[in-house]
Amino acid sequence: MEQYQKFSGRLRAAILYFLTLVCVGLWANVATADVRIKDIASFEGVRENHLIGYGLVVGLLGTGDKLSNSPFTRESMRGMLERLGVANIDADLLKTTNTAAVMVTAKLPPFGRRGAPIDVTVSSLGDASSLRGGTLLVTPLAGADGEVYAVAQGAVAVSGFRAEGNAATITEGVPTIARIDNGAIIEREVPFSLRELSSFRVALRSPDFTTATRVRDVVNMELGAQYAHVLDPGTIEIEIQDKANVAEFVSVIENLEVQPDTVARVVVDEKSGTIVIGSNVRIGQVAISQGGLTVKVRERFNVSQPQPISIGGTTVVIPDTELDVEEVDSKFTILEGDVSLQDLVDGLNAIGVGARQTISILQAIKSSGALHADLEII
After folding, report:
1. Average confidence score pLDDT of the chain
2. 10-51, pLDDT tens digit by residue?
3. Neighbour count for residue 65 (Cβ, 10 Å)
4. Could you give the maximum distance between any two Cα atoms of the chain, in Å?
5. What keywords sit in the KW lines (predicted)?
6. Residues 122, 102 contacting (CB under 8 angstroms)
7. 69 SS3 class
8. What angle do CA 200, 202, 206 make, to 5 degrees?
């Protein structure tokens, strides 16, 4: 029996030790928070290009531009009609309100091929009240270099609406902005060939020396050679060995997992009272006390009536103001040196402060030099 008890005790100890190792391993996996390279970086050449154009939306039910206030709409209409064969148009005779001048924007996706459709956004340029029910006429879309890369046309889709009467107006959403799904067709491609590259660069969205070094180490470990080199905190250059399979090579690189590093930062939005504290934030030993004055003002109005039988008496309103000043004192809460995020939150909760008071406390701690992080106020 004694040997059985010893064996049972050893077995329980072994099980507890095993569970401890499992929990530590799970905690370590959670703490590392590895992410794919494609989620924190972009690849050279794989980018969108902005397109813009000027056009006309027709078919509006009296909600278009007033030509007396929008001369560019009137001139655009006259130029369009002349190109379509309707000549000798007197611009002063154009009185329609069914047309609106618009700006058309779109994004040319990376590796967009000729003939592929893309979405466009249509925004009113004049004083049109709504684009609902309109149709965008043929509009060339140009890039930053002035070249036309796509052509847009089609019926617009507006999510908002506007209804008005003689004494009331109702507006829901923004009826002067519309969208056309697959409303443009790519007519010109951006020249770019992966096979012509001898190397490509990975650009980190949040430049950091530590993260860049970790990406380099992960790539070199995966490839088994020194193919990756850190150029700066935001750029890692990777040499291409097999130009025949560049796409597969990039696919392997972008799916590698790395643990990104971030700067300790506290972000405060004073307009909404939102506070975001990073996990790397540390605070030196400080004592915090939050208190202040509460002023209460009560206003009452007393009415003084004249006697029932009086000559020349008037009713007088006498204001009665009562002020009450209350001073609120709070106890000191001591935060030990080099506390973590959880210790900071527990300490602030211990003295019962809200978001607004927390902002003032963080600013005071930063001024004292005890906040070891960047304090960013937006």
Report:
1. 78
2. 544 444 433 433 343 433 343 446 889 989 898 887 888 999
3. 29
4. 115
5. Bacterial flagellum, Periplasm, Signal
6. yes
7. coil
8. 160
